[in-house]
Amino acid sequence: MALLKAATLLLAVAGANAGASDLSAGITMGRKSDFKSTCSTEHVFADDLTMGATIKNNAIDTIYAKFHESFGDIIINMRPKDSKVTGSIDMKSGDARCVASFDKDELSFLTKVALTSDKMKFGPLSAVMKPTYDAINQLLDLDVCTNIEGADVTMSMSQRKNTASTMTAIYKFNNGVKVTASAAANADMSLKCEGDYNGHKLDGTMAMQGLKTPGLKLGWAKGHGAKGKASTAVKADMSQIEGSLTAKLGNFGDWTTTLTTPYSDVKDTKFALSTKFDV
């Protein structure tokens, strides 16, 4: 409590220091009138110390301090209402970075640690390693990022306690198309392709659970005209195919026609016409 009182006093006398403050207020009218206000202030006390606070409805909600050290930054947040103390430590060295989050009420104290390595050489390729551990969700992630002939490639491995580990590969082509492949230890697999290629919007997904028949969804869309006043779209899955045409007619509204046909019986084809006006 003494620390909180000292921090509040420092903020109160910060008028002689460089800083900024924001104030917002509102009134809710009804059977019971309600006045709400929020005030935030931040002041620089030294080159390596910045402090601030948020006051809600005449009570201190959060007090924070930012310490700027040679190895990086430390942020500490204090909430007087329930004595909650959280924060983070951000350390940098060249391109390498380590961000650790902590909470004094958590058993492990450290709640999350994320590392980013310097670029490492693997023959003709250079890669960046990004391991992350989330202690609260008991999740371990490892990302390896590289670039192959202008395309960004990310390989990820994820392990959560009591669940099957998964591996994901993401390949971003330099033409705007992204392919994502994922596989889990329990034989669940998925493949997704999405992006915008020369005005063609692509979206396709294939998912399979073990040896079961895979599910497949495909999507394609394209705008027509200089300002895209018309567009065509097609969607298909394992049960039906749907085509639509949209035209923007200015004062006459936006019109869309949709034709949906199930594979099981063409006679069940449905036609829809809809419009939208700006009033």
Note down, in words, how this protein is organized.
With 279 residues, the chain is mainly beta. 4% of the residues lie in helices and 66% in strands. The protein is built from one helix and 21 strands. The protein has a 21-stranded antiparallel beta sheet that branches.
Q: What is the terminal-to-terminal distance? A: 57 Å
Structural class: mainly beta
The low-pLDDT segments are 1-17
Indicate the mean pLDDT: 83
C-alpha geometry: extended
User: What's the count of strands?
Assistant: 21
Rounded to an integer in angstroms, the radius of gyration calculated over CA atoms is 28 Å
Please, how many helices? 1
Report the β-strand fraction as a percent range. Answer: over 45%
Instruction: Summarize the amount of helix as a percent range.
Output: under 10%
N to C succession of SSEs? HEEEEEEEEEEEEEEEEEEEEE
The main sheet comes to: 21 strands, antiparallel
Short recap of the structure:
By secondary structure, the chain is mainly β. The chain has one helix at residues 2-12; strands at residues 19-28, 34-46, 49-56, 59-69, 72-79, 84-93, 96-103, 110-116, 120-122, 125-134, 139-148, 151-160, 166-172, 177-184, 188-197, 200-209, 215-224, 230-236, 240-248, 254-262, 270-276.
